[in-house]
Amino acid sequence: MKRRRALAVLVLAAGTLFLRPATAAAEDISGIIVRTLMLSENSRLVGDVICRVTGAPCIAFGVPDIALNLNGFSITGSNDAATGCKGTSLGTEPGVSTNGQGNVGIRGPGTIQRFQGDGILFIATIKGWVQGVTTTTNCMSGIRINPTSSAISVESNVAVRNGAASAACGGI
Amino acid sequence: MGSNNIVEANTAVGNSNGIVVFPAASNNAVRQNLAVGNPPIQQSTSVPNGGGVDIWDQSPPGNNNTFAGNQCLTAVNTSCPAVSSATPRKPGT
């Protein structure tokens, strides 16, 4: 009898483990980033981020089906706050790149600013979204959907002072 | 911009261009956005040949990109309806 009861408890415990919801845990992000931060799970900012990555995205998606929540904080590149872009753009330095991953998204409120490339770049991404994000003083577009991306929803964002006079990009 | 995208209810102000649909883009919907003051006046005066508009459709007419209900003052290859006649999007639609 005792053995049966123990077995039942064991089965119940194992069942609880297997029946847990399959939601990804969230990675908390804040502080200084010096090389590309590759996201592998749902993530959120828990403080402002300063980015010192050169020649590559500051934050990139590493797997599909996840989201980055800015959570009211900012991601800031190395451009000058007063003069903005300074006229030189560099496409390899976006703030956030979808990096070819599908069904990924960026949720505001929050700010992505002062990057030498785009603020947010959707590249080779099928299905994605960006919502409620402010992009400002990025050298290329605030939000750019590369021609290799499709089924992207860009909704309720604010783009201010993005782009350089020499390039045909801009807010969105 | 690629294909089958939706750009909706965004605000673009003071950028070198507001909203740009690139030449290869197709089947995109650009609707109910506010794009004004693009490019910023500082750029217009200091770089007179820099160009820039609020909404710029660079794609050929057959690409089926649609523009509806946007508020803007300058545009290329699409219309900029009078601000007063633009209809705000109803929540949930």
Secondary structure topology:
The complex is a heterodimer of chains A (172) and B (93).
Chain A: H1 2-18, E1 27-33, E2 37-39, E3 43-51, E4 59-61, E5 67-69, E6 74-76, E7 96-97, E8 104-113, E9 120-122, E10 126-136, E11 143-145, E12 150-155, E13 158-160
Parallel strand pairs in A: 1-3, 2-4, 3-5, 3-6, 4-7, 5-8, 6-8, 7-9, 8-10, 9-11, 10-12, 10-13
Chain B: E1 6-8, E2 11-13, E3 19-21, E4 29-31, E5 34-36, H1 41-46, E6 55-57, E7 66-68, E8 71-72, E9 75-76
Parallel strand pairs in B: 1-4, 2-5, 3-6, 4-7, 5-8, 6-9
Annotation keywords:
heterodimer; A: 172 residues; mainly beta; eight-stranded parallel beta sheet; five-stranded parallel beta sheet; 1 helix; 13 strands; globular; B: 93 residues; three-stranded parallel beta sheet; 9 strands; 6% helix
Walkthrough of the structure:
The complex is a heterodimer of chains A (172) and B (93). With 172 residues, chain A is mostly beta strands. Chain A has one domain (26-160). Helix content of chain A is 10%, strand content 38%. Chain A is built from 1 helix and 13 strands; from the N terminus they run αβββββββββββββ. Chain A has one helix at 2-18, and strands spanning 27-33, 37-39, 43-51, 59-61, 67-69, 74-76, 96-97, 104-113, 120-122, 126-136, 143-145, 150-155, 158-160. The termini of chain A are far apart. Mean pLDDT of chain A is 86; it is low at 9-24. By secondary structure, chain B is mainly beta. Chain B has one domain (6-80). Chain B has one helix spanning 41-46; strands spanning 6-8, 11-13, 19-21, 29-31, 34-36, 55-57, 66-68, 71-72, 75-76. Chain B has a 3-stranded parallel sheet, with no helix packed on it. Chain B has a 3-stranded parallel sheet with strand order 2-5-8, with no helix packed on it. The radius of gyration of chain B is 13 Å and the shape is globular. Chain A binds chain B through residues 141-142, 144-172, and chain B through 1-20, 22, 24-25, 33, 35, 38-40, 43, 47, 50-52, 56, 58.
